Amino acid sequence: MIRKLLNNVDDIMNMVYNIVNKPVYLLGKLLKYMFSNNFITVY
C-alpha cells in the first residue's frame, strides 16, 4: 500500500516536472534566440 502510494507520488512528480519544465525550457530558448538576434538591446 505504502509502496504503491510512493510510486504514484513519483509519477505525479514526473508529470509536474514535465508540465513545468517544457514551457520554461521553450521560454529560455525563445529569450536566448531573441537576445542573440539583437531584437532586444541590453545595456
Shape: rod-shaped
Element pattern in H and E: H
The count of helical stretches stands at: 1
Report the radius of gyration as a whole number of Å. 18 Å
Low-confidence stretches: none
How far is it from the N-terminal to the C-terminal residue, by CA?
A: 57 Å
Q: Major sheet, described briefly?
A: none
Q: What percentage of residues falls in helices of 4 or more residues?
A: over 70%
Number of structural units classed as domains: 1
* Total count of strands: 0
Going by helix content, strand content and strand pairing, the class is mainly alpha
pLDDT averaged residue by residue: 82
Q: In percent, how much strand structure appears in the residues?
A: under 5%
Gist?
With 43 residues, this protein is mostly helical.
Polypeptide structure, described:
The chain has 43 residues and is mainly alpha-helical. The protein has one domain (1-36). The protein is 81% helix and 0% strand. It is built from 1 helix and no strands. The longest helix has 35 residues, at 2-36. It is rod-shaped and about 55 Å long. It starts with a helix and ends in a 7-residue tail after the last helix. The mean pLDDT is 82.
